[in-house]
Design a protein that fits this description.
- The chain is α+β, with helices and mostly antiparallel strands.
- Helix content is 36%, strand content 22%.
- The strands form two sheets. Strands 3-2-1-4-5 form a five-stranded antiparallel β-sheet.
- A hairpin with a 6-residue loop joins strand 6 and strand 7.
- It is elongated and about 60 Å long.
Length: 243
C-alpha cells in the first residue's frame, strides 16, 4: 500500500513514547489512518493538529497493516484553537468525521463540505458565519452514511409546502397543518436547511437539535461518547455566546 495525497487531519492520539496514530480525510481515498514516527515531538506537534491540511505519504506492506505516515504541512489552522468557539467547532467537526466514517471509502462530498466548514470557521471565528454551514454538514453526514432525512414532502399528506417539523422516529418532514396538536412530539425544521439562506440563532439551535438527535441515534450510537462530548461543549459555548 502506497498513497500520497493531501488530507485534512481529523484526530491524533499518542502511541508509545514518541509516536502518534493519525486519522486524516483524503478526497479520493477517504479516511486513512497512519502511524507518525516522532509524532509527539516538538517539531511535529504543531503540524499534527486537527483541521490542518497536510500532504501525507502512507506506506504499508499489506492493506491490513497500519501504514507508516510522513506528513508535510500545507496549511495550518492551529491559531484557531486560541478562539474558544472556533476551537469547539473544529474539535466537533473533526471528531464527527473521524468517528463516523469507515476507513478507506471515498466520500468526496464530505471532504469538500468539511473543507468548506473549516474555511468558514477560519474566515469568521465568531460563529454566526459558520454555524449554519456546520448544521448542513451534519445533515450531509447523515445522508452520505445512509441515514438521510426526508425533507422534501410531508410524510402524512404528501404536500411539499409549509414543512415545519420532522418526525423524530422516521426522520420525515411534517407540514404545519398535519402537525397540529402534535407539535411537542416533533422536532422543528428550520427553513434554511431546505431552502438555504441565512438563519437566526433560534433556527440555528433548532437545526443543531434536529441533526444531533439523528446523529446520536443512528451514527454515533455505542461508539461516539468522545465526539458527542465535543458537540455538547460546542453547543454550550454557542449558547453562552448568544446569551
Amino acid at each position: 500500500m502506497h498513497l500520497i495525497a493531501e488530507a485534512i487531519l481529523l484526530s491524533v492520539r499518542g502511541h508509545g513514547e514518541h509516536g502518534a496514530v493519525v486519522r486524516a480525510l483524503t478526497e479520493r481515498a477517504g479516511v486513512q489512518p497512519g502511524y507518525v514516527r516522532g509524532g509527539r515531538s516538538r517539531a511535529l506537534r504543531p503540524v499534527l493538529q486537527p483541521a490542518n491540511l497536510v500532504r501525507g505519504e502512507w506506506r504499508a506492506r499489506t492493506e491490513e497493516q497500519l501504514a507508516a505516515l510522513t506528513v508535510e504541512l500545507v496549511h495550518s489552522r492551529a491559531p484557531l484553537f486560541a478562539e474558544p468557539l472556533a476551537a469547539a467547532a473544529i474539535e466537533w467537526a473533526c471528531a464527527l468525521t473521524a468517528t463516523a466514517l469507515p476507513d478507506g471509502l471515498p466520500y468526496p462530498r464530505l471532504h469538500a463540505a468539511l473543507s468548506a466548514v473549516l474555511d468558514a470557521v477560519e474566515a469568521a471565528p465568531a460563529a454566526r458565519g459558520w454555524a449554519a454551514a456546520l448544521a448542513r454538514y451534519e445533515l450531509l453526514v447523515l445522508a452520505e452514511l445512509g441515514f438521510g432525512l426526508d425533507l422534501e414532502r410531508c410524510v402524512a399528506t404528501g404536500v411539499d409546502e409549509d414543512l415545519a417539523f420532522v418526525s423524530p422516529k422516521s426522520g420525515a418532514a411534517v407540514s404545519r397543518a398535519a402537525a397540529t396538536g402534535y407539535e411537542t412530539r416533533l422536532l422543528p425544521l428550520p427553513a434554511f436547511l431546505r431552502e438555504g439562506g441565512e438563519a437566526d440563532w433560534a433556527q440555528l439551535f433548532d437545526a443543531l437539535r434536529l441533526t444531533g438527535h439523528f446523529l446520536e441515534r443512528d451514527v454515533l450510537v455505542g461508539r461516539g461518547a468522545e465526539a458527542l462530548a465535543a458537540r455538547q461543549r460546542l453547543v454550550e459555548r454557542l449558547k453562552r455566546a448568544v446569551a
